[in-house]
Amino acid sequence: MSKPILFVCKSCNSTSNPEQNPSMGHCLLDKLKELNQGRCDIREEECMWMCENACIVAVAKGDHHTYLFTNLSGEETAEAILDFAEIYDNSKGKYIPFKKISSILQSANIARIPPI
Predict the structure, then answer these.
(1) Tens place of pLDDT for every residue, the chain, 116 residues?
(2) pTM for this one?
(3) Is residue 24 within 8 Å of 54, Cβ to Cβ?
(4) Which of 6, 93, 102, 116 could form a disulfide with 80 if both were Cys (CB 3.0 to 4.6 A apart)?
């Protein structure tokens, strides 16, 4: 069975510090890779066109809805994202109640995008 895929924008930076190097997105990506332990596939994206809402991660799998998280606060959200990916995978494509999403992610902007 396939794992959820995390699409992570590695060029994301906050508008208050656009020149930060490495970028917030790159730091988040590194932290996700460090903590992942095979829970999901992680794909680096050069830019996800949400620069005003950094950091950006999308969680997708097969015929499931895709969840898009924006305004993530950086690498401190990595464990919450990986926990969400497990909930997402176990949901078998069904609706995930907002209360099941960790509080650190509830403060992000979240979109639930229908499968194709």
Answers:
(1) 689 999 999 887 766 566 767 788 889 999 999 999 999 999 999 988 887 788 899 999 998 999 999 999 877 899 999 999 999 999 987 889 999 999 999 999 999 999 88
(2) 0.90
(3) yes
(4) 102
Q: Which of 85, 79, 6, 16 is nearest to 53 (CA)?
A: 16
CATH code linked to domain 5-113? 3.40.30
Structure token pair of residue 93: 């494509």
- Other C-beta atoms within 10 Å of 33: how many? 13
3-class secondary structure per residue, 61-102: CCCCCEEEEECCCCHHHHHHHHHHHHHHHHCCCCCCCHHHCC
